[in-house]
Amino acid sequence: MRSVRSGIAALVVVLSFMGLPYDAHAQWREAYSTISFAGGIQQDAREGLLHSWWTPQKTREAFVSTPFYLGHLELGFSPHRFEPTDEEVPAFDAYFGYAAWDIGVRFPKQVRLAAGPRLGVYFMDFDVDTTAGIRTETEMGFGGHVRLTVHPVSFVGVYAGASFFKMYTYEPIRLYQYSAGLVLTLKSPRWLKTVLR
Amino acid sequence: MKRRLSVLVMMLGALLPALDTTAADCHYADQTRTVLTGDEIERSGAIRLTDIFRLMPEWHTVSTDFYLWQSGPGIFSLPDWDGMMMMVDGQPLHATLLGISYLNAYPLDVGLIDSIEVYEGPVLCHGIFAPSGLINISTRLEDGNVSLGGFGAVANETRDPGPYRYTPLETENIDRSGPVYGGFGAVSGPHWHARAYGKADEHHVTGVMLRPRIRRLYGMGRPPRHFLDGGHVDVRFDRPFALSIMADQSHFEHFRFMPTFGSEIPFSTDWTRAGASGSASLSSNTSFFFSGEYSYYQLYENPETPEVPIDWRHERYSAQAGLSIHTNTLRVAGGFGRYSKQMRGERHLADPDVQGSTFFVTADASFTNQLRGRFAGRFAREAEGPFRNLIASIDYRPFRGHTGRVSFSEVHMPMHQATPFFYWVERGFAIDSLQGLTPTVDLPRKPARRTSLSAGWHWNLWSIATLSAHGTVAWFDDFPIAQYDLGFVSDLTDPIREVAYFDVDTRVYPANSGRISRVALEATVTPISSLKATLYYAGTVTHDGDDPFRRAWTVVPRHRGYASITYSPMQRASVHIRISHESPSFWPEYASVEAPSGGRYPAELPLLTLLDVAVTKRFWHDHVRVSALISNALDRRNQRHPAGGNEALALLARLQIQI
User: Fold this and answer.
1) Do the strands A173-187 and A34-44 form a parallel or antiparallel pair, or are they unpaired?
2) What is the predicted pLDDT for the residue at B360?
3) Rounded to whole angstroms, how far apart are CA atoms B98 and B269?
C-alpha cells in the first residue's frame, strides 16, 4: 500500500513541476478555451481496511474539465457501491463529488500527461439506519490523480489514469483506483467563457 | 486587522434606544476600531456570520460544535458586564434569546456584508449607546433595478465513523454543521431600495459527549439537528426624506435549554422584529431624526415533547426622536426616547419588566485649530432610579504632528442589565452557559458603575508612523484597575488600516496585588498588489498576585500568534492561508472533569497550531461566487476551552449566484 501511495504521490509532484513551465505560459492565454466531457470505468487497485467488511463494485466516473490559468480545472463525480462480505454490516452506496486541478506535460500527437490534487465530499447512503436515526453521512475527501490523455482526432480522445483518495472518517477510508474512458473536447462557446471568466 | 477590540457576540446589552441616522461618525472614549471588508470576509471562506470572528487575531474564538461560536475580546480590553451590541445598517439587533445574541439567527448572509466595524468599550454610534462595545454590520446595496440571488453552503467536520459504525471500529458520531441556504431579491430606483431575504440553516449535534457539557441552547436528539429559518425585509428611501424600515422573522426548532447540569428543556421559538429609522432636513444645518423598534419572541414546547410545557413571551419596544444641528465648528444632536421590556406567559424564567425614558445628546466641537472636544451622554430614568452613560474626550494639537487626548467614560448599568458574572479575564470566556467552568468571579446582582479615565500622547513621525504613549485608570465600583501602555504605530495608508504596530501594555490589579504585561505587534505588508500578508504576535506575562489572580490568568496562553496571506494570482480568484498558534494553557476549573470525560476535557491544554486554507473564485462578472475553506488543515486536535475537543479538520464550501 505504501509503495502505491508513494508512487502516485511522487508522480503527482514530478509531473506538476515538469508541467509548470509549459502550462504556465501556454494555458494562461487559453483559459477556458475548451471544455472536455469525459466518462469511463473505474476499478479498485488494491485492498485496504474497508475491504475487511466490504467489496467495492466496478463503477463509473465522469468529469468535466477546462484549461485554467495554470493546468486544468476539473469537476467530477463517481458513484460507488459497496457490497458486504460480512452479514453483520449493511451494503451502502457512496458518491464522490470533487473539484480537481492538474498540471501536465504535453507531448506531440496531442498527448498530455497530467497530475494534480482533488478535493471533494463523499456522500454515503447506508441500506439501514445509523444509530442516530439517519441513514446518510457525508465526509470530506482529499486525493490526487495521474492521467494520460491522447487525442487521435481533435475532439475525441481516450484517457487512462490512476487515483488515490482518502476520506477523513475517524478510521480513514483509503481507495486506490485506476480508470479509463473517453474524452470529448469541444471549443468553449462564447457564453460559457463569459460565465467562467 | 486590529487590536484592543472586544466582542462578545453571544450576550448582548438590552434596552439601549436612540438611532440618529444623521450622525456621521461614532463617539467613543479612546478605542481604535476594526474594519473588516466584505472582500476580506469572502476570501476567508466564511459561510456563516459567526465565522467572521476568526478573522480577528486578537480575539479568542472557541466553538463547541463548529457552529456556535463564542467570541471573546483580547485580554487587554477592559472588563465589562455585557456583551457587545450588534447593529445592522445602523439599526440595533436585539434578537437575543435567553440573553444570547444569536448571530446566526439573524437572516443575513455573509455574502451581503459590505463591511463590519467593531468598537471596544462604550461607544455612541449612530445615536445608539453601547456600553460594552459595538459591532456594526453594513450590508451591500446592489446597483441596478432588479437583482435576484441565491446561495447555498455546506460544512462538514471530519472524523465521523462512516461505514465503520457497523463494525467493531465504531466511534462516536461527530457534530456536523449542516447546510445553510437562502435567497434574496432586491429592487431599486433612483432614491429608494427594497430587499427581501430568506435563509434556512440546519445544524446537526450528534456528539453525545457534548450534551452534558454544554448548559446552553442546543438542538439534538431526534432528529439530531436544529433548524432555523428566517425572513428579512428592508426598504429604504433617501428622498424626500431618509427612511429605513426593516422587519425580520425567525423560527427555531429542536432547541434545548439546559438550565442545570443534566436537565434539558426542549423548545421551539419564534422571533419577530421590526424597526424603522429616518431623518429629514428642516433647514441647511438642522435635521430631524427618529427611530423605533419592536421585537417579540416566544418560547413554546416542542410538539414531540408536550409533557414539558413552556410558555415564555418577551416583548420590547423603543422609540426616540431628536434634532441635529451642525455648523462649521460644531455638531450637536439630542433627543428623547421611551423603552419597555415586558415578560409574559404563565411559565417563564424570572426576569424583571422594565420601563424607562431616556435623554441623549452628542456634541462635537472644534474650539480652535488645536482643540477639539467630543461628548456623548445618555441619561435614563427607570423604576430602579436614574442612570447615566457618558463619553467625553478632548484632543489637543499644540503643533504639527503632535496630538494629546484625554478621555473619560462612565457606564452606569441598571440592575437588570448587570449580569451576575464579572468578566475580569476575558468576557468571552465568561458566558453563563459555562458557569463553573470559567474563571469568573460572582458579584452581587446590583446596579453597577464603571468609570475610566485615560490620557495619551501621539506623535506623528514624518507622516508615516505614530509613536504613542497611553495610560488608563478604571474603577469598577470598588474594584480598581490601572493600565498604561507604550506603542508605535506605522500608518502608511489610511487612519483605519494600520500597517504595523508595536505595543507594550501593563495592567495593574491593586486588589489582587498583581500585574499583567503584554507585548503585541502586528504588521501588514502588501509587497505587490495581488499579495497581502499579516503577522500578529502577543505575549503575556503575569507578575506577582494572589492565588486566585494567578489561577485565573493561567487560562491565557503566554504566546499567541497569527499569520495570514491572501494571494490573488488572477482576476477574481484568491487563495487565503492563515496560521494561528497558541502556547499551552492551564484551566484549573477543568481539573475535576478531566477524568470523568476520559481526558477529552483536560485541564492542561497543549500548544496548538491551526492552519486554514481558503480558495475563492468569482465567475460571470461576479454573478457567481464560489469559495471553499479547509479548516484546521493539519487536523490538530483542538481542545481550546471552553470549546471541548471536537473541532477537527473540516471543509466548508459556499456558492452564491446573483443576477
Assistant:
1) antiparallel
2) 85
3) 11
* End-to-end CA, chain A: 41
Quick: pLDDT tens for B294-314.
888 787 776 666 666 677 787
B601-634 exposure pattern, b = at least 16 Cβ within 10 A, e = fewer = bbbebeebebbbbbbbbbbbeeebbbbbbbbbbe
* Separation between Cα atoms, residue A130 and residue A134, nearest integer Å: 5
CB contact (8 A) between residue A171 and residue B206: no
* Alpha-carbon gap, residue B8 to B554, rounded angstroms: 21
Q: Do A195 and B619 touch (CB under 8 A)?
A: yes
Q: Copy the grid coordinates of residue B202.
A: 440546519
Of B425, B431, B396, B459, the residue nearest B556 (C-alpha): B425
Q: Is B633's Cβ below 8 Å from some Cβ in A?
A: no
Query: HSE on the CB side for B375, CA within 13 Å?
Result: 13
Alpha helices, DSSP H, located in chain A:
2-29, 190-196
The candidate with the shortest Cα–Cα distance to B607, out of B632, B642, B583, B633, is B583
Chain position carrying cell 425580520 = B248
Q: What is the ipTM of this complex?
A: 0.84
Judge contact between B296 and B313, C-beta under 8 A: yes
The cell 424600515 sits on which residue? B245
Residues near B214 by Cβ (< 8 Å), separated by ≥ 6?
A: B64, B258, B433, B434, B644
Sequence-ordered strand ranges (E) for B284-353: 286-301, 311-326, 330-347
B455: DSSP letter: E
Taking CA–CA distances from B173, the nearest residue in chain A reads A132
- The mean per-residue pLDDT over the stretch A18-31 comes to 56
From A39's Cα to the closest Cα of chain B, the distance in A is 25
Q: Tell whether B156 is within 8 A of chain A (Cβ).
A: yes
Pairwise CA distance, residues B423 & A168, whole Å = 39
Q: How confident is the model at residue A62 (pLDDT cuts 50, 70, 90)?
A: very high
Q: Check whether B547 has a pLDDT greater than 60.
A: yes
pLDDT band at B627 (very low <50, low <70, confident <90, very high): very high
pLDDT tens for B184-212 read 888 888 788 888 888 887 766 555 544 44
Q: Which residues on B lie below 8 Å from A89 (Cβ)?
A: 163, 166-167
Lowest mean pLDDT among A15-29, A41-55, A120-134: A15-29
pTM of the model: 0.80
* B420: preceding bond cis by omega (within 30 degrees): no
- A131 to chain B, any CB pair closer than 8 A? The answer is yes
Per-residue confidence (pLDDT) for residue B2, from 0 to 100: 37
Q: What is the largest CA-CA distance in chain B?
A: 80
Mean pLDDT lowest among B172-186, B234-248, B541-555, B610-624: B172-186
Cβ contact A133–B569 (<8 Å) = no
Which cell is B18 given?
Answer: 436612540
Q: Could you give the CA distance from residue B48 to residue B67 in angstroms, rounded to a whole number?
A: 9
- The SS3 assignment for B348 reads coil
Give the A window 52-111 contacts with B, CB below 8 Å.
52-54, 69, 82, 88-90, 92, 99
- Distance (Å, rounded) from C-alpha B324 to C-alpha B84? 26
Which residue from A82, A92, A171 is facing B169, i.e. has the nearest CB? A171
Contact A138 B156 (CB under 8 A): yes
User: Are A132 and B159 in contact (CB < 8 Å)?
Assistant: no
* Closest-CA distance of chain A to residue B650, Å: 7
Higher pLDDT, B387 or A64: A64
Q: Left if phi > 0, otherwise alpha if psi is -120 to 50, otherwise beta: which for B543?
A: beta
pLDDT at B621: 81
| Interface mutation target, options A137, A142, A167, A195, chain B, most CBs of B under 10 Å | A137
Q: Which of residues 192-231 of B touch A (CB under 8 A)?
A: 206, 222-224
